[in-house]
Design a protein that fits this description.
152 residues, alpha+beta, six-stranded mixed beta sheet
Length: 152
């Protein structure tokens, strides 16, 4: 299993870099060329959502993006550190789990739900987690092992 991890400050201009890196690593892992645009768009949406959550909640820790190449799948995890963010929005996501937000933390607003809807429309295999330590969106795509290079 090969893994690449990015961390970036919650600035919108860093989202483009995350999209480009995700697409390059996905291509190298063996994700079909036909879905690379969807990978780029989904990562961009997930990162933009995390940046927005961090900025609107005054969180100064970096956004986490983890790119994981496994034998048959390529996964991307985008994590934020906003407690309880998106808890209401995960209700319609298959495989999603949400803990109750801590006291004083508001549930997700309509914009958050829209971002998750876009991601669900782009990615067949998506899992959204929200809890006291923040949230994670995990997206996966199949790879073709014969075409995949090993990350070095």
């Amino acid at each position: 299993m090969a893994t690449v991890e990015l961390r970036f400050s919650a600035q919108p201009e860093h989202v483009r870099t995350a999209r480009l890196v995700a697409a390059a690593v996905a291509r190298r892992a063996g994700v079909d060329e036909a879905v690379l645009d969807e990978v780029r768009l989904a990562v961009g949406e997930a990162c933009s959502r995390a940046v927005g959550l961090h900025r609107s909640n005054g969180v100064v820790t970096p956004i986490r993006v983890v790119l994981i190449e496994e034998e048959k799948t390529f996964s991307i995890e985008v994590g934020d550190e906003v407690p309880g963010a998106g808890a209401a929005a995960v209700a319609g996501v298959p495989g999603a789990r949400a803990e109750a937000p801590p006291e004083g933390v508001e549930d997700a607003d309509g914009e958050d739900e829209m971002g998750l809807a876009v991601i669900r429309g782009l990615v067949d295999d998506v899992e959204v987690l929200a809890g006291e330590d923040g949230g994670t969106i995990r997206m996966s795509w199949p790879i073709t092992p014969a075409d995949a290079d090993v990350l070095s």
